[in-house]
Design goal:
Strand content: 15-25%
Oligomer: single chain
Number of strands: 9
Number of domains: 2
Shape: elongated
Order of helices and strands: HHHEEHEHHEEHHEHEEHEH
CATH superfamily of the largest domain: GAF domain
Length: 355
């Protein structure tokens, strides 16, 4: 189904549900949507909203969890426990296994919510999902409302509310179903923006920071209020062209990924950048020159032990920050090219300048 058609379908369903709710519920939805749209950190806004939902529904607690299929995890995004609740007396551990959440996905395919608050509903949940029934029992859930967070028809997370006031079941159900729609939309869009930001500063092949992120780091160092010690290490892989020629570009990509993994074992990930091609940069702050030199020595020692890891190394060091990035990188490049020349003198067959 076309994404626009799916989105239109969801919007029509939402409008139908809005037309059915009571005035008090509609006002609560408006106030909470205004909270979601406030300027600032979305996670904080969502926490304020679910705190309000707990209060309105008379619930013991409420949580939002997101599904991380890549790492097979159920990630708690936000949680609120009623102010009157003694946390130390809450049964269970609140832990929800990934497999249980995946079961919820299947149960929620064509439903806006699942409410379990009677003996019959608990018995039915035990038959359809023993893992869910065990979680309900373990955590002392007399009543629970589970709601999917959707993008189109895809479920990427859940909101659930525990031990709510079942005397106000219809109003609570209306409020939670509609708010799960708005909360899901805001969280999905926020996660999408975060992923786009991550992609804009990440090298796709190696997962290291990219050249754009490196220049941002240098600019932050130059414009920072304090100019402390900083070192730049320029690392240029040896033999990439030869590997590409003999093993193909897939072999070259594996070589680059292996080099990135080795560097992660020496430097902090935030300090590593793939500047392009076979060139990597490490930007190190807050260390002494002896510690900085130790990192270079560790690179050399690793190179001696690993036949699949060979570098030409150059560096720049300053005790007082960086005034001119062009000069800093030029100095690092100059010493790296001297090291590269020594390597080519020992391995002339790999010198691409002669081919």
């Amino acid at each position: 189904m076309d994404e626009r058609i799916k989105d239109k379908k969801q919007e029509n369903l939402r409008r139908e549900r809005v037309n059915e709710v009571s005035l008090d519920t509609a006002l609560a939805i408006i106030r909470n949507c205004m909270t979601l749209m406030r300027v600032g950190e979305l996670r904080e806004s969502v926490s304020m909203v679910i705190e309000n939902l707990v209060e309105i529904s008379g619930a013991r607690n409420a949580s939002i969890i997101l599904i991380d299929d890549e790492n097979r995890r159920a990630v708690k995004y936000s949680e609120c426990i009623a102010a009157s609740m003694d946390i130390s007396k809450m049964p269970g551990d609140g832990f929800i296994p990934y497999e249980v959440v995946k079961g919820w996905q299947q149960m929620m395919t064509d439903r806006n919510s699942i409410i379990i608050c009677s003996d019959e509903e608990r018995a039915e949940s035990a038959r359809s999902s023993p893992a869910l029934a065990a979680m309900i029992e373990r955590n002392g859930m007399r009543s629970v409302c589970m709601l999917p967070l959707r993008h189109g028809e895809d479920i990427f997370g859940f909101m659930y509310v525990v031990n709510f006031d079942t005397e106000r079941l219809k109003d609570t159900k209306d409020l939670l179903e509609l708010m799960s729609f708005f909360i899901g939309t805001e969280i999905y869009n926020d996660c999408l923006k975060a992923e786009l930001r991550r992609m804009s500063v990440t090298d796709e092949l190696t997962g290291l920071n990219n050249r754009h992120a490196m220049m941002d780091r240098i600019e932050a160092i130059i414009s920072g209020p304090e100019q402390g010690a900083v070192g730049i290490i320029n690392m240029d892989l040896n033999g990439l062209k030869l590997i590409n020629d003999h093993r193909g570009h897939e072999g070259g990509d594996l070589y680059l990924k292996h080099a990135a993994d080795v560097m992660r074992g020496i430097f902090e990930s935030r300090d590593l950048y793939r500047a392009g091609g076979d060139e990597f940069i490490a930007i190190v702050e807050g260390k002494t020159y002896e510690e900085f030199s130790g990192l270079i020595n560790l690179l050399r020692e690793t190179e001696d032990r690993d036949p699949e890891f060979s570098l030409a190394i150059g560096y720049y060091w300053s005790d007082n920050g960086i005034e001119d990035s062009k000069t800093a990188f030029m100095n690092a490049d100059r010493s790296m090219y001297l090291d590269k020349r020594r390597y080519y003198s020992r391995h002339p067959e790999e010198d691409r300048r002669k081919h």
